Amino acid sequence: MKPTTTSLLAAVAALGAITALAAATAPGDPVAVVETKLTPRLPIERSNLLCPAPSNAEVAETTYTSFTPEPTRPPHPARPATGTAELRPGTVQLVATAADTTKKPDGGTNGGKPVLSLTTPGKPVAATANGSDAPALVGTADGNLAPGWTAQATTTVTAGDARGLLGTACTGPDTEAWFPGASTAEGRRDYVHLTNPDDTHSVVDIELYGKDGQLKTTLPDGLSVPARGSAPVLLSTLTNEALADLTVRVTTRSGRVGAVVRTAEDAVGSDWLAASADPAATAVLPGIPADATSVRLVVFAPGEADAELKVQLAGPGGSLVPAGHETVRVKSGMTTTVDLADVTKGEPGSLLLSPANKGLNTPVVAALRVVRGAKEAQEVAFIPAAEPVGDRASVADNRAQGTTLSLTAPTATSKVRITASTGTGGGEPTVATYTVKAGTTLAFAPPAPAGLAGSYGLTVETVSGGPVHAARTLALPRRGVQMFTIQTLTDDRGTVAVPEAERDLSVLDD
């Protein structure tokens, strides 16, 4: 009987595929850490994105935009010349609590025609959906459309309690996410949206942490998220405590989910709260608008040690310490808030958090609640702690008017290249290079494509220098309200390091 043969080349190929998936969907996985030691780097072959159901308001108007930047590296030798990138509807279910397991259909179907089909790198596509029936989306890109694939959902609600401009970048699936800045307070309605891309159900735990520690919730046995479906969960139904500021932790017992929090606050507005960067000793929160009338920092230390953090504001001319807020102490397992008021004083900025004492590198997660305007004209947005843009990062759905790009170099002067793609309806791409001085924030309206029709994609690449953090603000004034939303940009992980095989060491037949 012939023995089973195992090809080292096949194992190497499998390792490359696994690493590519980790780089595209789970940056914190150990596999993703190991892959940085391997060479050379090649484009990933598949990417997954998940978009939450955009709104439960009948007057909502949503634009979905899908974009893959032009390739900057040669394709994988085995990669097909073309690829696919599609976002399809997923089943949407409304879940109140684990105790109330009745699941009410809320629009959408599993499968069906794609909502968005992308065909060409460098040319974004857009689609619209109105009302409350727009479903969650589950999507996959492969071939030459996978590296750097991004999608955006932008929703305008002009009336009602959820009035506001809501924007979110569709996310990849993961097994853990942190959301400092959520709330169960009266007048606040926060839903955590969980979307499952796989063909089997996922079991998810939702933990809530307030100013005095972890709260008891009604989800002791976890929540089941249907295969290729989505479950919005109202946070105030998970606890009896009404708290202005919470940190939400989402983890999976089985499977993966994309998670994001949709907020709505009476008389203030609504927006999406994206997950914070993974817990780390330092945090950068980029893109505070110059005209912010209220800025509140929410920070949480998930480890066993307390954190003592130095607080700095990086503005156009350099970094300074906000008066009265030189440091902030964050007790382990407790959510801490700091009211920074109108900290920017008419200039754009970014918040930098770092250990106040050398050697005490306690990891934290953080986010900012940012308000523009006053009284009836208020509008709210959120800025989570962001990872650097790395080699390249992109954001979709940029407009000729109302788009602001903020770049922050917290430690060293950096040079970046900005590319504005062709528009969804036409136009010629533009490229510009900018220098961001150490400890500063550079905020500007990026040069739009020549002859732009529709919206366009923005790509930020690090050319030289230290790490750069970025955020895009989109402002769409409506009925006297300066509606806005802010999305941070992070490394698209469009390439993966793979080992080079010098010999085929397949075991030969006896």
Any overview of this molecule?
The chain is mainly β and 510 residues long. It is built from 2 helices and 39 strands. A hairpin with a 2-residue loop joins strand 22 and strand 23. It is globular. Mean pLDDT is 86; it is low at 1-38, 96-110 and 503-510.
Gist?
The protein is mainly beta.
Fold topology:
Blueprint: H1 8-25, H2 30-34, E1 41-43, E2 46-51, E3 60-67, E4 85-94, E5 104-105, E6 116-118, E7 125-130, E8 136-142, E9 150-157, E10 164-169, E11 176-182, E12 191-195, E13 202-210, E14 213-214, E15 223-225, E16 229-234, E17 246-254, E18 258-265, E19 269-273, E20 283-288, E21 292-300, E22 307-315, E23 318-320, E24 327-330, E25 335-341, E26 349-355, E27 365-372, E28 379-384, E29 392-398, E30 403-409, E31 414-423, E32 426-428, E33 430-436, E34 440-444, E35 450-453, E36 456-465, E37 469-475, E38 484-489, E39 495-497
Parallel strand pairs: 4-16
Antiparallel strand pairs: 1-39, 2-8, 3-7, 3-9, 4-5, 4-6, 4-8, 9-10, 11-17, 12-16, 12-18, 13-14, 13-15, 13-17, 18-19, 20-26, 21-25, 21-27, 22-23, 22-24, 22-26, 27-28, 29-36, 30-34, 30-37, 31-33, 31-36, 32-35, 37-38
- What proportion strand? over 45%
Count of discrete alpha- or pi-helical segments spanning 4 or more residues: 2
From the alpha-carbon coordinates, what is the Rg to the nearest angstrom?
Answer: 22 Å
Report low-confidence residues grouped into runs of 5 or more: 1-38, 96-110, 503-510
